[in-house]
């Protein structure tokens, strides 16, 4: 069955967009739990990762 995607709502409604992308990539509650559990480890590394990516660009 094909699901209708409201492009206006997709660009204006953050929750709708999150749900759309979550379905598309099969992002589950388990993934959210894993991210929340590892947040204290990952958060300090984000600036280093972003800087590294920008240097490669």
Account of the 3D structure:
With 57 residues, the chain is mainly alpha-helical. The chain has one domain (7-56). The chain has four helices and no strands. The chain has helices spanning 7-12, 14-25, 29-42, 46-56. The chain is extended and about 40 Å long. 0% of the residues are buried. The model has no long low-confidence stretch (mean pLDDT 94).
Short synopsis of the structure:
The protein is mostly helical and 57 residues long.
* Mean pLDDT rating: 94
- What is the rounded distance between the termini? 40 Å
How would you characterize the largest beta sheet? none
* Class from helix and strand fractions: mainly alpha
Tally of discrete structural domains: 1
Helical element count?
Answer: 4
Helix content: over 70%
Beta-strand content:
under 5%
**What does the overall shape look like?**
extended
Q: H/E element string?
A: HHHH
Radius of gyration: 16 Å
> Based on DSSP secondary structure assignment, what is the total number of beta strands?
0
Spans of at least 5 consecutive residues with low confidence? none
GO molecular function, one term: oxygen binding
Domain Globin-sensor: 16-57
InterPro entries: Globin-sensor_dom
Protein name: Globin-sensor domain-containing protein
What is the element layout, followed by pairings?
Layout: H1 7-12, H2 14-25, H3 29-42, H4 46-56
Pfam families: Protoglobin (PF11563)
GO molecular function, one term: heme binding
Organism: Adineta steineri
